[in-house]
Amino acid sequence: MTEVPVSTISTLEEAAIMKFAVLLSTDKEISQLMKYALHAEVPNQRWKNLLRRKISEMALPAHFHKRLISITSRVSLFMEQLKSIHDEISPAFGGPCQCLHGILHSFVFHSSDGVFDERKTVERIVADQRIDVAFRFTLANIFCMESSRVSLQQQLLRGTQSDSSENNWPNYSESRSLVMLIYKTFCFRQTFLIRGGNFLVD
User: Fold this and answer.
1) What is the dihedral of CA 168, 76, 23, 141, to 10 degrees?
2) Is the CB of residue 113 less than 8 Å from the CB of residue 8?
3) Per-residue confidence at 172, pLDDT binned at 50, 70, 90?
């Protein structure tokens, strides 16, 4: 019998942990607590207790638990940050907008060894034509994606919107004012994203 290399097992385990982390981040209780964490400090123990309860229900190997808590914390907070940015943009375009509904977590990117990559995740969102152009433009600014930022800004300045059938936001004649509003949101959120919110995991 051919022995499977230890490195291969480790890589498969990390990939599996990442998939479970994404699944946990969609949990209603976890999502609600992360949304609260964007605006107020959440005690580490409260968060860990919730995750331990959720993980115990999944009957996973014990050595998965600590790593899963760490990755789920990172993925969940980042996803809620993205949704918060989207929700801040949508009122200016006559929201609510449902372009992220049911698909946001499908953009989560991780390397072959299970490492969560925030930038690659955002690149996927920015490139997806189903997502509203104002939101993609804002993310392109926050993550310094210059080529994407320029092309998306041109769309906004022309008063155009994504051709997604899911996007019901109206066109605006004063697109320049909207671009300035988006820049304002970008400046505020950039500081928040770099700081990582008020929630920390040991």
Assistant:
1) 50
2) no
3) very low
